[in-house]
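[job 4471] stage=fold_predict status=RUNNING
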Amino acid sequence: MRKIIGIALILQLLLISLVAEAQLDMSNFGSLDPSAQKGKDILLKDYQPKSIYNIPQTKIEHARYKVIDIHSHPYAATDEEIESWIKTMDAMGIQKTIILTMTTGAKFDSLAARYGKYGKRFELWCGFDYTGYDKPGFGPAAVKELQRCYNMGARGVGELGDKGDGLFYSFPTKALGMHLDDPRMKPLLEKCAELHMPISIHVADPYWMYLPVDKHNDGLMNAAEWHIELNQKGKLGFDALIQTLENAVRENPKTTFIACHLANCSFDLGRLGKLLEEYPNFYADISARYGETATIPRFMKSFYEKYQNKLLYGTDMGMDSDMYKITFRILETSDEHFYYPSFNYHWSYSGFELSDRVLRKVYYKNAEKLIDKN
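[job 4471] inference complete, writing structure tokens
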């Protein structure tokens, strides 16, 4: 009996030894590649993947047709920078760039003098002067300044901006608490109709910025940086902001409105589509929302086809040639699974392969209808 027990103990010890040795071997196997552990330490903000797929890639050097960029800003601060920008525009096929100055007064006059030297390559739009908006009698002075800016060369208004706290983009005064559909805005909106000045308006932000910053947020990388807190008194949420836009468009049928960035409805373009269908005086620019839409190329292609008469090309991303090229690649090609880190999302992109007919309208024909009236 003792002999049997002894043999059993020996076998048990041997088994324990074998298990321990196997675990050691597995541990060594897992550590053969040091990069495996290193990969676990990469932060999402530092993640910049490169596609490994051996699939067709289209090299875009310039737009297929001439282009009017309906949404840009005075990025160039000197004559030399403007002249360099024009060379880039020529190389990319950009016929004209709309400069949304968001300014009035002497600041607008200075920009008008600087960019006015270059003929029709640039068209400047001014802001609204909200000085005294919170006091009785606001309106006539603001309308007078709008007329003065028009006389100085302004041919539109923008970019106006409201992310919930009120209209805050125009220099020199923020109109916090006043939204686009406020009765105090009526004289300005009517004056724009009289002068045939389109209004470029940015309301809300991409929907990811309103969602909790957690593991379920699809656009986490940007949402974490641009998260919008809605617990502030008087701050409007996404739906309410879209409603202020619709109210203004509906109540001012003779005024042309351009919703910047697809009205930030990239997540629910059906909502934007209804507005485009309902109101003849309402348009949308596609600027700075390529990263948000190039993940759903088939849907976007059908969206562009359906609303081809109401969409306008824009950038809002500087004046670098690579920036223009990525927009052309998304709009023109059928390329799949490519990245553009500057959009700051973790996902890959695919092209829409828009038809020539749609491209012509989005690139310049729709814009010509709005700016040729001036």
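[job 4471] summary: The two ends are 110 Å apart (CA to CA).
[job 4471] exit 0
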